[in-house]
Amino acid sequence: MKFQVNDKKRLVFVVVSCILMGFCISWLNKCCFGSDSFTTANNGLSNKLGIDFGTYQLMVNIVMLIAVLLIDRTQIGWGTVANMVLVGYSCNFFSWLEAKILPSSVISFDKSLGYYIFDSFTVRIIVVWPVMLLFIIAASCYMSASLGSSPYDALPFVIASRFPKKLFKIIRILYDVAFAVLGFAFGAKVGLVTVVIALALGPVVAWMKESFIDKLLGAPKEAET
After folding, report:
1. 138 near 21, Cβ under 8 Å?
2. Could you give the CA distance from residue 210 to residue 148 in angstroms, rounded to a whole number?
3. N or C, fewer C-beta in 10 Å, the chain?
């Protein structure tokens, strides 16, 4: 497990990154071009079950965490906890705040989706690109901090550990596609953002870690188990 307490800069970095991810998801939802696969599934199911997004995402994360803990605890750390709690509830908070601030002439509540969306297609196009880029950067920063993976991201490693290493990319793609399809089946939006995040996140994580994160924060300190 990656529960070191002697690397406070990385912990703060992870917390800020997870809150920023939640902020971005609140805006991506309004653009109606989809989101990452995990968010897509949780959007669809939470709306159908009548549970707020943050609480539902935490519940799913806990179930996944139990599975990961039983098989491979090395994937778990403070970053895991931060992601489990902060992303969903940050999205809830910012969605509530934005609904209070943005005028009713710009957004309206979509009952079929369970959240507010931009009425103008032009506004959606203008907003989606910078927000999607910011989400990819925030997610990459969180993953590159080496303080543990979210249960959703850890589970494919656990599954892939039972197969030859060369199959990991295929397993991860199928895993993401399955969650996106699940969300779509329950009424969530799947679109351009879903595809771009799936394709871009891996390469950006590798680049951020090598070119930015380790230089900014220093090499990760040895974890305490």
Report:
1. yes
2. 17
3. C
